[in-house]
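[agent] plan:
  1. take the single chain provided in the ticket
  2. run structure prediction with default settings
  3. attach structure tokens to the ticket
  4. add a short note for the reviewer (M.T.)
[agent] executing step 1
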Amino acid sequence: MSKRVLITGAASGFGRGVAFGLARQGHEVIAGCQIWPQVWEMRHAAESEGIQMTVIKLDVLNEIDRAHAFALDIDVLFNNAGIMESGPVVELPMDVVRSVFETNVFAALMMAQGFARKMVKQGRGKIVWTSSVAGLVKVPWDGAYAASKHAVEGFCSAMRDELEPYGVQVATVNPGAYRTGFNDTGMEAMDQWWDQGERVVAHWPKRPLDKQHDPQEMIDAMIEVIASDHHAYRTVKPKAAEDMVKQEQSEIWKRQV
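[agent] step 2 finished; step 3 output follows
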């Protein structure tokens, strides 16, 4: 059955792939883009491929944009917008940490709250959050991002149980390392501030991020979760990342300091 889906962070990466993939399957897609040039570009990209898609400006940090989105009636919210800022925890500027949490946690939570209220009243709906493998395991040199996704996991697991009696589904999708450019720019971002003060611990060990996977695998899994009526609460890809998560979570019980 066709669904009406709002996607945040739709201009690039997973969001873009999911938007076009769902639209090709006949779902009614509302693609939210952070800035107007992205809106224009995505509209024209859809038109050039003959794809029916509504593209709106939706900066999840912008109260006006959120209010505009909340006026929409949807079946599924794909809570996908996010940012990544790397760096050793000891050295992370607080402005960087706050920025990551504002987008990945607080703005995402406000989007979820706004649509959850509408979904509870109508007795149906689904909220799918883009979490991360980083929300389930330790990630040295990426503590701010990992902590934000751990927070996402906490909110999602609570919302799932709280909203289930009202007919509202909540699920997470947890990508590992995929070639969307997100990981590369997230790691590079710390170079903007690293030389602006004295550092007491080492910069992350620079190396090419050459072990990333084809993002189509994760995009296909996200589309399946969004479009299906019944599926797993958590979807981790690739399989190697799922195995790693389960092993590390088991080993934590034996860890000592």
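[agent] step 4 note for reviewer: The domain at 4-191+203-252 is CATH 3.40.50.720 (Rossmann fold).
[agent] ticket updated
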